[in-house]
Specification:
The complex is a heterodimer of chains A (about 325) and B (about 800). Chain A is of the alpha+beta class and about 325 residues long. Chain A contains 11 helices and 9 strands. By secondary structure, chain B is of the alpha+beta class. The longest helix of chain B is centred in the C-terminal third of the chain and has 19 residues. The chains are: A alpha+beta (about 325), B alpha+beta (about 800).
Chain lengths: ~325, ~800
Amino acid sequence: MIEEIKKYREEASAAIEAASSLVELETAERSHLGKAAPLQGLKKSFGSLPPEDRKTTGMALKEANVSLAAQLANKKADYEKAERAKQLESERLDLTENTEALRVGRSHIITQAMQELEDTFVGMGFNVAEGPEVETDWHNFDALNIPVGHPARDGFDSLFVDYGAPGSTLLRTHTSPVQIRTMLEQKPPIYVITPGRVYRRDTADATHMPVFHQLECLVIDKDISMAHLAGTIEAFTTSYFGDGFTSRLRPNYFPFTEPSAEFDIQRPDGSWLELGGCGMVHPNVLKAGGIDSEEWSGFAFGFGIDRLASLKFGVTDLREMFSNDSRFLAQF
Amino acid sequence: MKIVLSWLKEFLPQGALDSFSNEEIGDVFTSLGMVTESIDTVGVSLDGVVVARVREITPHPKADRIRLVSVDAGLDEPLQICCGAQNFAEGDRVPLATVGTTLPSGMEIAARKMRGEDSFGMLCAAEEVGLGHLNDEDGLFILDEELTVGEPLQQALNLSTDSVFDLDLEGNRPDALSVAGVARDLAAKIGVEFIQKKPIIAESARQASEQASVAIAAPQKCGAFAVRVLENVTLGETPQLMKDRLAAAGMRSINVIVDISNYVMLELGQPNHAYDLDLVPQGSLGVRLAKDGEALTTLDDIKRTLIADDIVITNANDEAIGLAGVMGGASTEISQTSTRVVVEAALWDQMTIAHTSRRLALRSEASTRFERGIDSAGVELALDRFCELAAELCGAEIAQGVVSATGEQSPAPVVSVRPARVNAYLTSQLTSEEMQAMLAPIGFETVNQDGDTFSVQVPTWRPDSSLEVDIIEEIGRHWGYDKVAKATLTPAQSGGLTLRQKNRRRLRQTIQGLGFTEAMPMPFISPEDLEAAGLPTDKIISLENPLVHAESILRTSLLPGLLKSIAYNQSHRNGVAQFYELGKVFEAVNGSDDLPNETLTAALCCSGCSPGDNAAFKAVSWLHALADQLHVSSLQIVNEPIAGLHPTRSAKIVFRGKTLGQVGEVDPSVLEQYNVSDRVAWLQFDVEPLLAALVKPPKQKTVSRFPSSDFDIAIVVPNTVDAQAVKATIGKACGELAVSVTLFDTFRSDSLGDARSLAYAIRLQAQDRTLTDDEAATVRQNCIDAVAKKHNGTLR
């Protein structure tokens, strides 16, 4: 019987080897390894073997089956692999054909600049304060040491609205009223920035818009000096613009600060850029905010966000920023 | 303010600025708060122009009006020049602009051919080299024959140039609106003496008071009013130096008397005015408030209508002859025939002059100075300086005495200064004495001393200073802002955004993630914009003084601005505009004295939709996405017509019982008004309630480990019942087991009549067990029953 096993095994092995497709392989499996296959039929004749041969014969049969199953599996795997390869080949794509960019929105460059500035100041220990855009003349002027009759208060620079008593309500001309509101709501120490939208009666041109954005920084604490002002501007400058930038103060005038200064930043190439105004909070302003100027002192500085954004992104005409042309907006 | 260097030097010791370059002087000005905007060279600069001698003149072979001139310009070879002038002869010396020279007119001289003949330069008339004042003959400027051939003309004629510093001055430095004031500040900073010469005048025997009188009828508006009388005035030519200095400061030469008046103003900062005394009856000058509607023709020959807030100068007949502090009147103007002059200097109320000048849009050098506040003690000095110059230049005889009247004046204050306070502000370590030594040269003289503390008298030319901090600024300026240390701030608090501010950023990020780009339309619109958008025009807030009508009201909705942006992009063929805006809208609150309602509003829009695209559904999807990201689950959508939106494709959004916003598609007729083609999906809502809603991070719900049971039901419900209500009913019927109720199909047909079929996919799941078929079947039946009962729905 051992001879028969060997013979059938060779026949089956040859059939498996000869199969040239998955279908033929399955046919070969049925006819040589199926229940009806002659190799399997040998089991029935086991009873007729002498008992001493049964063990070796059984082992030979089992070994043949295991070997054939392995051969079959290998062969099958080869065919499956080839078939998959064929299928994949038929699905070939040129991925460079697709150039569609999924539409992801973005914020306006002014918003981008504003958030970056907020993050910079938050990192320096500041909170962010906000206030209304339509303001009382008291918050926008009187409280900021700009008395009635001051030229800044007439209708040439400011946009007044038909609300309340005539001349009492206007679109804020700076974010400084938020300083007053903060002082009135919160006891010192105060460390806030006040980013926001402001309005001036300016005809739009490359460097002016009737609507623009400002950021002011207000500190009120014990023993605040001009050195803190200069140091904070310097810290902001290096933190926002990067290493190699520095800053300086030079005398200037604002009604709401005294002493007042203009601050410039110096680029790494040595050129100077006028950035904004600053100074020690005027005693009259502290008084309007309910703060004793003998006990507390403070500084404030402010600058235009739009201009900063235009410098950063190389925008040469401020009007572009408000054109809402998607070809412009999509660049940043 | 334009400061002429040679003029400035008249107030400084000889040679005080010799060691400074112009740039260094400019830097000192800037360090004092007088920002040097530019430094220009004025006067003739004749680089490239040399003295040439005419050797030979021959006719041009091809032109009658041009001759060929051979000149000796000091070079090895003579030069040939083509020249059209006829007024010169061989041997004459004339100016030659050599090749490469740029003439004052901007003309550049190049070697060229004229009708075939070479020309290596240009022979010039005086005018052409900027020397018109030296020679006004037609033709070439014939120079003195003693001049050396080949020498630069500038050197040959000993012509000098001057420098002009353009200083940007702040409102608190009225004193710097004068050469003397700038010189005083500069002298103190560089540690040299400031020299203010006292004018020297010889008065005649005749009394000024016999020829002129003054009276002030508005003492609260006029602190001082003074005149001097000049006789036998001869109006000759204004000296070139004076003309040049006036021109450098941006003023035109009129006649010598007016020029002197302007010169004194620029020099001392005190505006003053000269009248033809013979045109002033009895020499009587008065000051009073104008009458409403009173007319006055000013020097520029414009008839001005005045109001009772203006101040006028009047004659004996109470007629206005000048607009105080702004501009003189035409009726008493100085002319070439004037021989008797009365010169006036006064101190006017700052605010009054500011308002008059602004109201009439008439800004003059005088009004600029009065607005900021002039030296309250400077009136007589200016009159004397005027007389000194008029005597010298016009041979004027000065009548004896100043005729003056005074009104109300507030005395310059005395301010107490604590050196410790100064040093604390500036982080300086100055002694009291050092501070006083910085202040005295700029006029802040110490009047009292108590230990370290000292008091200074504020000078009359610094009306801006009245507090200790003002003095600290003066010390800081002269000590040097560049010496201020840079100290690190050490706030006790840690900075951060509020939860609301963080949520606002989260909202932005979500909107941007949905594909929207932020637009920033102007917040100003016109009432017509609102009407075109179908929006109400009550509650609008108008600007009192808009620049243009198109920007005359504050927006009450973000719709007009975004529609304009879409129209703009469509007209530029920029493709689909998918914009969002986050900004304030404004509404009047009736009967309130508080500020108007300002609502932080977000709007999302997408253009380019077709009617079949169902733009409104798209917009609703945005809303659901935002609600999901902000963890807001209780938004209600209520179908109803919304102003400006498609009447049958719009809904209001309700959150916690209040209207939050609107969603849908923009009304096609509104789009037509805005020239927008296709359809526009629209979502607009108040932002603050959503920002306030997300206060705590969401708590995790355990995901069930047991399999879900899923089934679908299709129910026919009347069209009047909205799908949101059906979904809510089904959700409730499923109870705790409901994981999701999803509308996956809507079917309408004639056979269903006034109803439609809504198909829902329902997923049930329990936390603690696998649901049995029976349990699912029960829930399913509950759903069907509930919809039948509540909405008259039937299983399809």
